[in-house]
Amino acid sequence: MSQGLKTVLVICLSVTMLFTSGCFDASEPDDMAYVVALGLDRETGGNLMITLLLAVPIAVGVGPESGEIENSTNIITVAAPTILGGINVIDSMISKRVNFSHAKLVVISKELAEQGVEKFINTFIRFREFRPDTYLGITEGSAEEFLKLSKPVLEYNPSKHFELIMESFAYTGFSNGSTIEEFYSKMESTCGEPVAVLLDISPIQEVRDLTELLKDFSNRNDEVLEGDYTAGEMPVVYENKIRQMGSAVFRGDKMAGVLTGRETLYYLMVSGKLGDVYYTLPDLNEGSGNMPEIKDYITLRLSQARKPEISVTIKENIPEVRIKILLEGDIVAITGRNDYSTGDALKMLEEHASEYIKEKVVSFMEKTRDEFKSDICFIGKHVKKTFLFWEDWLKFNWPEKYEKARLNVDLEVKIRRPGIMVKQIPEMD
């Protein structure tokens, strides 16, 4: 190769490298203000109240030293007609540019959710900085107040704090882990309705404040077990005042009602999303020894043996829904004297647990049908696949048909491991 040709080749390669460097529009991480959570409220003048919980990188990076956790986040609230319009205003007043690529949670007030959330969800889906796996929650009160009171206690990284809280539904069953992508998909579906995580602020400050709350629980007709309440009713005293418990149920893009933590667990059962959870149910006997007013309980570790089987037949234009659920359980605690380790007693416990949970699941399903008129378990998808033409399916009008559906639940609990004890020795009188 001649010297002249080599010179031309070097010049061409140099010019090419100048135009393919790809750094002309790059942004330094230090130039960004990373949003941990976004809150939306309605302002009386018609504007949105947009609240950003921003991470303070310097405070987060130095570690969990005394006083640094409280300084790991910063709150900004702006009034604007649109979300991105409000972000534009914030960008004009802070030294960094707002970025949503690490946002973990979007919080919408119940007041806004009851009016409709489609326009907000569309913004999240269209705007490239919002990740589809960002969690979506509905708070009973103000989203701004919710974010202000969010103070991580066991986690100095605020982003990790929200992520771990939202993922806890996998081992508690008390929430649903709804994300922006999942919510949007279900909102646009013709065979089911979406749900969101139910959030609230706890009014309880001290242990003595639990008295009135527990008194209210005791006035209810049925016994109240763990999870038989919503986020704001949790009988817990804790430094962090934000709570997650239950689900916000939607019909279309409008909020239709709420489910308690236990009702959400039944939603996960029917939807095939139940993880490995602890479940408490009353013992078969009435009381404990000489104190019959003290009830005995059994705690099982429950999981789904297989995905639920759902079939739907249409008879005289009315859906006949049959749901078959098979659960596996381990005995992890018994507060009474009964021994359910082997034989007929173990079979009796299986039958008791099956019937007890079945009644609760039926009650939950009837609530979605009669009170919410919302098919959040997507029973409709098992009907949709029987239609050959899209127009026929739309004309069938599944949401209207679901309100008249007949619901049948077959539920069976199998105890695989009765506990680590070979035999339970009864207490001697």
Give structural notes:
With 429 residues, the chain is an alpha/beta fold. It is 33% helix and 26% strand. It contains 15 helices and 14 strands. It has helices spanning 3-19, 57-61, 83-91, 110-115, 118-126, 143-148, 158-167, 169-172, 180-187, 210-218, 261-271, 343-372, 381-384, 390-396, 398-402, and strands at residues 32-42, 48-55, 73-80, 97-99, 105-109, 135-139, 195-201, 242-251, 254-259, 277-282, 297-304, 309-315, 318-334, 406-417. Strands 1, 2, 3, 4, 5, 6, 7, 8 and 9 form a 9-stranded mixed sheet that branches. Strands 10, 11, 12, 13 and 14 form a 5-stranded mixed sheet that branches. Strand 8 and strand 9 form a beta hairpin. It is globular and about 95 Å long. The termini are far apart. Residues 59-64 have low confidence and may be disordered.
Average pLDDT metric = 86
Structural class: alpha/beta
Taken from the alpha-carbon principal axes, the silhouette is globular
The string of secondary-structure elements, in order, is HEEHEHEEHHEHHHHEHEEHEEEEHHHHE
Radius of gyration: 27 Å
Major sheet: 9 strands, mixed
Quote the distance from N terminus to C terminus: 105 Å
Number of strands: 14
Number of helices: 15
Per DSSP, what share of the residues sits in E-state strands of 2 or more residues? 25-35%
Helix share bin: 25-40%
Low-confidence stretches: 59-64
In short:
This protein is of the alpha/beta class and 429 residues long.
Helix and strand layout, with pairings?
Layout lengths: L2 H17 L12 E11 L5 E8 L1 H5 L11 E8 L2 H9 L5 E3 L5 E5 H6 L2 H9 L8 E5 L3 H6 L9 H10 L1 H4 L7 H8 L7 E7 L8 H9 L23 E10 L2 E6 L1 H11 L5 E6 L14 E8 L4 E7 L2 E17 L8 H30 L8 H4 L5 H7 L1 H5 L3 E12 L12
Parallel strand pairs: 1-4, 1-5, 5-6, 6-7, 13-14
Antiparallel strand pairs: 1-2, 2-3, 7-8, 8-9, 10-11, 11-13, 12-13
